[in-house]
Amino acid sequence: MNRADEDEYRQFVSARLEPLRVTAYLLCRDWHTADDLVSITVGKLYRHWRRVRAMEHVDAYVRGMLTNAWLDERRRPWRREKVTEEVPDQAEVTLPEVTLADRELLLDLLAQLPARRRAVVVLRFYCDLSVDETARALGVSEGTVKSQAARGLDSLRALASIEASGEGA
């Protein structure tokens, strides 16, 4: 960006910074988040200033950028967390003791899965490989890994419930 464009950008932003901040606050009802949204918008505006300044309704376009930034932020998982005054009590987590019979049962259930599903389940959950790593190891697409893992886990759950009800014998 040349000097004249940058000066024009600075003038535009400094004249509209507070109205953008208020608009962002009205969208999200939190001043800190509003400041973040304005920062995101101003950064994107800087990158695209040459194109944006040539538009007929620059202010409307920037408000649209701000609104889209707010919508994007709302979709982020950390925005779903709620702030509380007190930390909730933490329950003690006790893991169930795994016996040799449980391990044998799991091996028997795994043996009942088709070969590709068994390979995906073992690589994903026993070897703790990512979807990408599993796909590369098996020479299949990531979508195949995801679907086979989901189906494999569903099959294991169904087989385990049948076994638990005593119908497996």
Explain this structure:
- This protein has 169 residues and is mainly alpha-helical.
- The chain has two domains: 3-78, Rna Polymerase Sigma Factor, Chain: A (Orthogonal Bundle), CATH 1.10.1740; 100-164, Arc Repressor Mutant, subunit A (Orthogonal Bundle).
- Helix content is 72%, strand content 0%.
- It is built from eight helices and no strands.
- The protein has helices at 3-28, 31-47, 49-53, 58-75, 100-111, 115-126, 131-138, 142-164.
- Helix 1 (3-28) crosses helix 4 and helix 7 (131-138) packs across helix 8.
- The longest helix has 26 residues, at 3-28.
- The N and C termini lie far apart (75 Å).
- The model has no long low-confidence stretch (mean pLDDT 86).
Please, what is the average pLDDT? 86
Largest beta sheet, briefly?
Answer: none
CATH class of the largest domain: Mainly Alpha
Q: Please give the radius of gyration in angstroms.
A: 27 Å
Q: Please trace the helix and strand order, writing H or E for each element.
A: HHHHHHHH
Number of helices: 8
- In terms of structural class, how would the helical and strand content be classed? mainly alpha
N- to C-terminal distance: 75 Å
How would you describe the oligomerization state of the chains in this entry?
A: single chain
Query: What is the CATH-assigned architecture of the largest domain?
Result: Orthogonal Bundle
Our estimate of the beta-strand percent is under 5%
Can you tell me the overall shape? elongated
Number of strands: 0
Percent helix? over 70%
